[in-house]
Design goal:
48% helix, mainly alpha, extended, 81 residues
């Protein structure tokens, strides 16, 4: 994968997708979140928000709206500890 010059956080795929990469990324993200102090409920809340964004994106594409979900406001729900 190559890093895009205008956005160092974005990566372009120039090689075939390794099916293990998503699982590796998930494990890495989970480990980082836990090491940075998030508890299980907070990680679950984050996962729920990601799924909500994905569902909205899929629905918008299905309806042809073209709205950018990543910049759309999300509900601000407090995380219970």
């Amino acid at each position: 994968m190559a890093v895009l010059p205008d956005n160092p956080g974005m990566v372009a795929r120039d090689q075939p997708h390794d099916p293990r990469s998503v699982r590796i990324l998930a494990k890495t993200m989970y480990r980082e979140l836990r090491q940075n102090g998030l508890n299980e409920q907070e990680v679950m809340a984050l996962a729920g928000e990601l799924l909500s964004l994905l569902a909205t994106d899929v629905e918008d594409r299905r309806l042809g709206s073209g709205r950018d979900v990543a910049s759309a406001p999300t509900s601000a729900r407090p995380v219970e500890r």
